Amino acid sequence: MHLPHKQSDTISDCAAHLREAGAELVSALTPTGEKQTFSVSHDLLAHSAKDQIWVITEGEAFYRVGGKQVTRHGAGDLIGLEPDLPIEVGVYGCTEPLTMEPYRRAEVVNHAQFASYLMCANAFYRAALAQEIRAEFQPSAGFMHFMAGETIIHQGAEADQVYTLLEGDAHALRDGVKVGEIHADEIFGALAVFTRQKRMASVVAVNDCTVLAVRKEEFADLVEMQPQICLGLVEELAEKINQLNGQLLASQAKG
User: Fold this and answer.
1) pTM of the shown model
2) Cα–Cα distance between 97 and 177 in angstroms, integer?
3) CB of 187 within 8 A of CB of 130?
4) 187: CB partners within 8 A, 6+ apart
5) From CA 229, how far away is CA 128, in angstroms rounded?
6) Residues near 48 by Cβ (< 8 Å), separated by ≥ 6?
7) What is the C-alpha to C-alpha distance for residues 63 and 40, in angstroms, rounded to an integer?
8) How far is CA 121 from the centre of its chain?
9) 142 - beta bridge partners?
10) Partner residues linked to 55 by β-bridges
11) How does pLDDT run across 228-253, given as a tens digit for each residue?
């Protein structure tokens, strides 16, 4: 899987891991039928059974949502998983010869390796969203630079921006206690924006950092325009909420 336009090295690495996870997943399964070859198709899955997932063995397919091409898929990529994921369902197609092999959906999604595949997909979509933010809002967004030890976000402050860490590393601190790490190309500060609450933690630069800040209104517009690449962000936010709840309960128990 890759983006239809130029993508960052981070996204390329995520795509490679995703392809490896997909290959490991299907290696333990048996195809449910013969391979099928298409020359040109505007909807590869139009006549596919609902209980099937396909693996591309040769050629390349595109994936469109609302008429816009959002990803491209090559040999080793799984297609047809969208109904099982919280992303917008689109249409697969191809303009050159493409061959696919069918697998039973239930066997794929219930396999132990499927969780690993979802984690790789999470990383891909999160990195893709970070790149989209950069591409969409570079003209109007602010680039900010922080030296090691400086605070990027203050706990308790109003949440009016979402950030993408372009360079460097940072730590998230709640009441002075480290609760998370942030690395290059990661999005942070979105949780408080979505929940309309004040910042739940501070973010402090570990080394020299460059940050891209996007106003919450612009970020909301981007999420609305690009819902298909928000899987990773949504899963990450859910994980952070669970972590913070767990830490809060632990703190209350000690008190």
Assistant:
1) 0.56
2) 55
3) yes
4) 126, 129, 130, 133, 162, 163, 164, 233, 236
5) 7
6) 54, 80, 102
7) 14
8) 6
9) 213
10) 78, 101
11) 545 555 555 556 656 656 665 666 56
Q: What is the mean pLDDT of residues 50-75?
A: 87
Q: Can you read off the two tokens belonging to residue 106?
A: 């239930």
50, two tokens: 């609902």
Sign of CA dihedral 119, 124, 130, 133: negative
Strands of the 61-65 sheet, one edge to the other:
68-73, 61-65, 91-93
- The number of angstroms, rounded, from the C-alpha of 246 to the middle of its chain's C-alpha atoms is 24
CA-based nearest residue to 194, from 159, 155, 227: 159
- d(CA 133, CA 115) in angstroms, rounded, equals 27
Torsion angle in degrees (nearest 10) through CA of 32, 34, 35, 38: -120
Q: Where are the alpha helices (DSSP H) in the chain?
A: 9-27, 105-109, 114-137, 190-195, 216-225, 231-254
CATH numbers and ranges of domains, the chain: 9-125 (2.60.120.10), 128-254 (2.60.120.10)
Classify residue 123 by burial, with Cβ atoms within 10 Å: 0-12, 13-18, 19+: buried
Residue type, 75: A
Do strands 61-65 and 68-73 pair parallel, antiparallel, or not at all (unpaired)? antiparallel
What's the pLDDT tens digit per position in 211-225?
888 887 777 766 665
